[in-house]
C-alpha cells in the first residue's frame, strides 16, 4: 500500500458529488496544521470496485449505502469506523429565470412545464444514486407513469445539472447541494418531501488496510461539529446515525 | 511535318532542350542512357509540362507556351508504351487491355480485343493479374493496352525489350502496318540501331 | 438467447454505428485524399482538427456537441427550425457523436493507402484517355480499398464502443440512445450486476469480431491479398 | 503561463502517454508484422483481440484491468510479489491503460504499411546476402516508417485523450493519475469552472498538434514524401 | 560441371521441368517469353523452392530434395540481376550499391565501389534515389549492386536491356572479364542471339 509519508495526508476516495465540500474540508484540516489529505473523486461505483480489487486508500466516502455495503462484507472497512457523514435532499430545478409553478402532486403541471419536446434531466434512474432517489420520489408521488418516458437520464447528477444549466432541458432533478453549487444559473422550484424517497445518506469509513496515522483523525474531524459545519455550508444536512 | 518539337524542360536541376522537326511518320529517337528520351515522351504525352516551347504532332497543336495551350493527357490521345509497362495491378489482363478501349468511341477503334489478343498471343493470360506475368508477357499486354485505345499517335519507349526474336519480329511488322495502313505518327525510342534503321524514316538524335 | 431489452440495445447500436460509418465514409475518404495528395495552406490545421476527437476527452466532445447542436446551439437551432431535424436526445445524435469519434481513425487509414498508390499508374491511365476523375475512380479508389476497409473496421469498432460523447450529448434513454456501452455502464453502476454486464460486453465483442470477419472476406473477395500488395 | 497544478497535470499526461507509446511501439509493430505477413491458426482471433479495447467501452476495459492487474488479480499479484511493481493507483497503471487503448490504432496503421512493402525487394535483399532478419531491419522496417509514424501519432493522441479506462483502473488521484482528461472531467463536475476546463482542453489540443507537427517533420526528414510513396 | 540443374517446379498450375548440365563457365539460358527462364533463376537463387530436384553450381550443392538440402538465399551468394531491377526505393544509389558489399567480408571483395562506379559511369548518381533514375541508369545500378556483393556465381536476366550500344558493349566486356579472370559461373538469359553467341560456351534451350 501507499507508504505513509509525513508530509502527505491520507488518501480519500470520495463520490464526485462531494467535490467542493470535501476540498473545503481538506483545506481546513490542512490549515489546522495537518498534512493535506489527497482526495480522488469518481463515481461511487468506480471507487467501490477499485477497493474490492485491493486499491490502497485510507478513507472511502460513498454517495449511497449500497456501495458501502458492497465493500463491508469483504472485510475492507476498519471495524467501528463506518458512520454517516452527511445527508442530502433532492430538488427540482429549472434554468435561472424560468420560474414555472410546479405542483408536485400533479403530473400535468410537469408536462406543461416540459412542453411537447422538453425532457426532465436526472441522473440515470436505474443506476446512479441520485436518479434512483428521484425515481422513488416520482413513484411515490404518482408522477412516474406520466414522466417515465420524458426523462433524460444522465451519466451522473452533475451532468443532469449541466443539461439544466445550459437550458437544454427545462427541468431537472438534482441534489440540493448541486443546486447550491450552481445557484447563479439554476433555481430550485420544488423540494421533494424527505418521506418520498429512502433517506439520502453519505456513509464514510476508514479502510482496514490503511496505515496512515491521520486517517482516523481526519474521519473524526469530518464528523466533528467543525467538519459538519463545512458540509452544511455547501448545502448538505448533518449526518445522523440511522 | 508529323513532329514539330521545340521545348525546354527542367528535370532534376538540368535543362533539357529539344528542337526537332520530322516529316517521317515513324521517327526514331535515340541517344545515350539518361539523356532524356523518356522525359521527352512524357512531355509529348502531357504527363509532364515543359518549361516552354511548342509541341505539334500529326498537325495537331498539343502544347504552346506562348499561347497558353496545354491539352490534358486524355485529350492528346497518345498511345504510350512505357519503359516500365505500368500495368494496373488490381485489374486482370483483360481489364487492363480494355481500359483505354472503353474510353474510345466504337467507330474510332481499328482493332478488336480478340484480334489483338491472338496477334500478341495473350489469350491465355486474360484472367491473370499483372503480378503473375513474365517480363515479355507484361510487355505484350502493355503494347496491346496502348494500341486498343485507338491513339492518334504512338510513343514507344523501347517496346521490344524482354521479347524473344520471333515475337519481336511480329511486333515490328505490326508497327510497320500501323505506320503504313493507319498512317499514325510514331516516335520510337530504341537502343538497337538495326531496329531504328529498319523502321524509321528519320532519326532524332539527342546528345 | 437474448432478452427483448438486449435485442433493442443491439438493434440500436447497430443502427447508430452503421449509419455513422456509412455517412462518414465518403467524407473521411475525401479528407484522406486531400491530405494525401494536395498541399494547401492550412493543411496541418485541417489535419489537427480531424485528430481532435481523439485527443479531447469524449465527455468534452459531447459537451461541445451539446453547445453546437443543442436546442440553443447555432447549428442545432438552425437544423431544428429550417430542416426539422432534432439531434438532441435522439439516436441520430448518437450517430453524429459516433461518426465524429470514428472520423480520425478512418481518415488516417485511408490516407496511408492513398499515399501508397503509385502516381505513375495514374499517368498511365490519363494517357489512355482517362480524365482526372475517371483515373481517380478506376485507379486510386480501388487501389486504396485496403485502407478503406481498415478505416471502416476501425471506425465501426470505435462507434460500437463510443460512450462518453454519446451520454453527454444525447443522454442515456432506453430504446432511443442507450447503445451497448451505455447499457454496460448503467449495469456497472448497480452493485452485483456483473452477469448482465458480461453478457452485453460479449455481445459488443461479437459484433466487432463480425465486422472484422466481414472485412477480411471483402479483402479476399476483392482478390487483393495476392495481387495488390 | 501555466499554474503549478496545470504543470503537474501536463507533465503527468506527457509522461503517461510517452511511456505508453514507447513501450507499445515494438509490440504493436510485432503484432502488425505477424498479421501482415504470416498466416497461422487463430490469426483472426488475435486480430479480434487487438481490436477489443476499441469496441469494449473504456470503463469495461478499466474494470477488466482491475480484475487482472488489481492486487487480487492474477497478474497484479504476481507483479507485486515477484517484481515489486504496483500498477493500481499509480501513473504506471495509467500508462498501461493508455497503452492498451492505443494498441489497436497503432497496429492497424503499421499493418497497412507493412502490407505495402513489396516482397520482391526482400527477395533482392536476401540474394544480396541479407538474412531474414537483416532484410527485415533494412527493408521492411524503414519502408513501413509512414505506418509507424501514423500509428505513433494516432496512439499518442488516443493516449493523451484516454479517460474511461484510466479513471476506472487507477482512479483520479491528483499528481499521480490525474491526467488531462481526468482533470477536465473533474472540472466539468464543478459548475462555473468553464474557464479552467477550456484551458485544459486547449492544452490537450496543443499537445497533439505538437505530436502531429513532429511526425510531419520526421516524415520530411526521412525524405519519404518524394521517394517512398 | 559448372551447372547441374535437375528440377521440377510448380508455377501457376503448370509444371516446369529442367534437366541440364553445362561445363561452360558462361552458360546461356534461352527460350520464348513466358517459358520459365526467370522462374528457374529464382529457384537457383533460393528465392523459390522447386518441388524437387537437385541444383549444384560451381561444384557447390545448393538444393537437393532427396537429402533435404536447401540453402537459404543469403548462403547461396548468387549475384542476381533481376529483370525488373528491384532497387531499394528508400535507399540512395550509393546505399543500394553497398547493400550487399557490406554483408561481404572485405577480403572476398574483388572490386571497390569507386572502380565500379567509374566503370558504370554512375558516380554522379550516388546521391539520387532510384525513383529519379532513367531506365538505363537503374539497370547499371542494379548490375553494380549485384557485382559489389562479390557473388559466387551470377544469374543475369537480360542484363543489357535499356542500355545504349556503347554501354552495352562495355558491360559485355566486363562480363567476359568476370568469366575469364574471376572464373565465376554465369547463367545468362537473353533474347538476343548475338549476345548469346558471343558470350556463352554452352546454351540451355527451354521449349
Ligand atoms: N527527379 C529527378 N531528379 C534528378 N534527376 C532526374 C530526375 N528525374 C530524372 N532525372 C534525370 O533526367 C535524365 C533523363 O532521364 P530519362 O529517363 O528521360 O532518360 P532516358 O534518355 O530515357 O534514359 P534511358 O535510355 O536510360 O531510359 C536522367 O539523367 C535522370 O537521371
Ligand atoms: N502466379 C502465377 N500464376 C500463374 N502463372 C504464373 C504465375 N507466375 C508466373 N506464371 C507463369 O509462369 C511462366 C514463366 O514465367 P517466367 O517469368 O519464368 O518466364 P520467362 O521465361 O522469364 O519469360 P520472359 O522472357 O517473358 O521474361 C509464365 O508463363 C508466367 O505467366
Ligand atoms: O454522487 Mo452521485 O453517485 O452522482 O448520486
Ligand atoms: Mg528512358
Ligand atoms: Mg523473365
From TrEMBL, chains B, E:
InterPro entries reported in the protein's UniProt record: AAA+_ATPase, ABC_transporter-like_ATP-bd, ABC_transporter-like_CS, Molybdenum_import_ModC, P-loop_NTPase
Keyword Hydrolase: no
UniProt keyword list: ATP-binding, Nucleotide-binding
ABC transporter domain span: 2-207
Record PROSITE patterns: ABC_TRANSPORTER_1, ABC_TRANSPORTER_2
Residue intervals passing through the bilayer: none
SMART domains hit by this protein: AAA (SM00382)
Molecular function terms from GO: ATP binding; ATP hydrolysis activity
Entry-linked PANTHER family: ABC TRANSPORTER I FAMILY MEMBER 10
Protein name: ATP-binding cassette domain-containing protein
Lineage, highest ranks first: Bacteria, Pseudomonadati, Pseudomonadota, Alphaproteobacteria, Sphingomonadales
UniProtKB/TrEMBL annotation, chains C, D:
The keyword Protein transport appears for this protein: no
InterPro entries (UniProt xref): MetI-like, MetI-like_sf, ModB_ABC
Cellular component terms (Gene Ontology): plasma membrane
UniProt cross-references to Pfam families, sorted A to Z: BPD_transp_1
PANTHER family reported for this sequence: MOLYBDENUM TRANSPORT SYSTEM PERMEASE PROTEIN MODB
All residue ranges annotated as the ABC transmembrane type-1 domain in the record: 10-218
Biological role: Part of the binding-protein-dependent transport system for molybdenum; probably responsible for the translocation of the substrate across the membrane.
A molecular function (GO) term: molybdate ion transmembrane transporter activity
Compartments it resides in: Cell inner membrane; Cell membrane
Record-stated family: Belongs to the binding-protein-dependent transport system permease family. CysTW subfamily.
Subcellular location, principal: membrane
Annotated membrane topology: Multi-pass membrane protein
Transmembrane segment boundaries: 12-36, 48-69, 89-114, 135-157, 196-214
Entry protein name: Molybdenum transport system permease
Keywords: Cell inner membrane, Cell membrane, Membrane, Molybdenum, Transmembrane, Transmembrane helix, Transport
Amino acid at each position: 500500500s501507499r507508504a505513509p509519508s509525513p508530509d502527505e495526508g491520507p488518501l480519500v476516495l470520495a463520490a464526485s458529488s462531494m467535490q467542493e465540500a470535501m476540498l473545503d474540508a481538506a483545506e481546513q484540516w490542512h490549515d489546522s496544521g495537518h498534512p493535506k489529505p489527497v482526495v480522488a473523486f469518481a463515481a461511487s461505483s468506480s471507487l467501490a470496485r477499485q477497493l474490492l480489487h485491493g486499491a490502497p486508500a485510507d478513507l472511502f466516502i460513498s454517495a449511497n449505502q449500497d456501495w458501502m455495503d458492497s465493500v463491508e462484507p469483504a472485510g475492507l472497512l476498519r471495524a467501528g469506523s463506518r458512520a454517516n457523514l452527511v445527508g442530502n435532499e433532492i430538488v427540482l430545478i429549472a434554468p435561472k429565470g424560468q420560474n414555472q409553478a410546479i405542483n408536485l402532486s400533479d403530473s400535468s403541471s410537469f408536462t406543461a412545464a416540459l412542453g411537447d419536446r422538453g425532457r426532465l434531466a436526472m441522473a440515470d434512474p436505474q443506476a446512479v444514486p441520485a436518479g434512483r432517489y428521484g425515481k422513488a420520489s416520482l413513484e411515490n408521488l404518482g408522477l412516474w407513469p406520466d414522466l417515465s418516458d420524458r426523462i433524460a437520464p444522465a451519466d451522473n447528477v452533475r451532468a443532469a445539472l449541466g443539461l439544466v444549466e445550459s437550458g437544454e432541458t427545462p427541468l431537472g432533478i438534482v441534489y440540493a447541494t448541486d443546486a447550491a453549487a450552481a445557484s447563479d444559473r439554476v433555481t430550485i422550484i420544488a423540494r421533494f418531501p424527505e418521506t418520498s424517497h429512502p433517506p439520502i445518506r453519505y456513509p464514510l469509513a476508514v479502510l482496514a488496510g490503511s496505515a496512515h496515522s491521520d486517517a482516523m483523525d481526519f474521519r473524526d474531524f469530518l464528523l466533528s461539529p467543525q467538519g459538519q459545519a463545512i458540509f452544511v455550508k455547501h448545502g448538505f444536512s448533518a449526518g445522523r446515525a440511522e | 511535318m508529323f513532329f514539330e518539337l521545340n521545348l525546354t524542360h527542367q528535370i532534376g536541376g538540368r535543362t533539357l532542350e529539344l528542337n526537332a522537326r520530322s516529316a517521317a511518320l515513324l521517327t526514331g529517337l535515340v541517344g545515350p542512357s539518361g539523356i532524356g528520351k523518356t522525359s521527352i515522351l512524357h512531355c509529348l504525352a502531357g504527363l509532364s509540362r515543359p518549361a516552354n516551347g511548342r509541341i505539334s504532332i500529326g498537325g495537331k497543336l498539343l502544347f504552346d507556351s506562348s499561347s497558353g495551350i496545354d491539352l490534358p493527357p486524355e485529350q492528346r490521345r497518345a498511345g504510350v508504351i512505357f519503359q516500365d509497362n505500368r500495368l494496373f495491378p488490381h485489374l486482370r489482363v483483360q481489364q487492363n487491355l480494355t481500359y483505354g478501349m472503353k474510353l474510345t468511341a466504337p467507330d474510332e477503334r481499328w482493332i478488336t480485343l480478340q484480334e489483338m489478343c491472338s496477334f500478341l498471343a495473350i489469350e491465355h493470360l486474360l484472367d491473370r493479374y499483372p503480378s503473375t506475368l513474365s517480363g515479355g508477357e507484361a510487355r505484350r499486354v502493355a503494347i496491346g493496352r496502348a494500341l486498343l485505345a485507338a491513339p492518334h499517335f504512338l510513343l514507344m519507349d523501347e517496346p521490344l525489350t524482354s521479347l524473344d526474336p520471333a515475337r519481336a519480329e511480329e511486333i515490328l511488322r505490326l508497327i510497320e502496318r500501323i505506320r503504313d495502313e493507319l498512317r499514325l505518327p510514331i516516335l520510337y525510342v530504341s537502343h538497337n540501331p538495326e531496329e531504328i534503321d529498319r523502321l524509321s524514316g528519320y532519326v532524332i538524335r539527342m546528345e | 438467447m437474448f432478452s427483448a431489452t438486449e435485442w433493442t440495445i443491439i438493434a440500436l447500436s447497430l443502427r447508430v454505428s452503421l449509419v455513422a460509418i456509412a455517412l462518414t465514409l465518403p467524407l473521411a475518404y475525401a479528407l484522406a485524399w486531400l491530405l494525401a495528395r494536395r498541399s494547401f495552406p492550412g493543411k496541418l490545421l485541417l489535419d489537427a482538427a480531424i485528430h481532435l476527437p481523439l485527443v479531447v476527452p469524449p465527455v468534452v466532445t459531447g459537451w461541445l456537441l451539446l453547445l453546437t447542436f443543442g436546442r440553443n446551439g447555432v447549428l442545432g437551432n438552425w437544423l431544428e427550425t429550417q430542416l426539422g431535424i432534432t439531434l438532441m436526445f435522439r439516436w441520430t445524435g448518437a450517430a453524429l457523436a459516433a461518426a465524429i469519434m470514428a472520423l480520425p481513425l478512418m481518415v488516417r487509414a485511408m490516407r496511408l493507402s492513398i499515399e501508397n498508390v503509385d502516381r505513375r499508374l495514374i499517368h498511365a491511365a490519363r494517357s489512355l484517355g482517362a480524365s482526372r476523375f475517371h483515373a481517380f475512380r478506376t485507379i486510386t479508389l480501388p487501389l486504396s480499398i485496403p485502407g478503406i476497409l481498415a478505416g471502416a473496421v476501425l471506425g465501426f469498432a470505435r462507434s460500437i464502443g463510443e460512450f462518453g460523447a454519446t451520454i453527454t450529448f444525447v443522454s442515456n434513454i432506453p430504446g432511443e440512445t442507450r447503445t451497448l456501452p451505455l447499457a454496460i455502464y448503467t449495469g456497472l453502476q448497480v452493485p452485483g450486476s456483473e452477469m448482465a454486464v458480461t453478457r452485453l460486453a460479449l455481445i459488443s465483442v461479437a459484433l466487432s469480431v463480425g465486422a472484422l470477419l466481414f472485412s477480411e472476406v471483402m479483402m479476399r473477395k476483392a482478390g487483393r491479398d495476392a495481387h495488390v500488395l
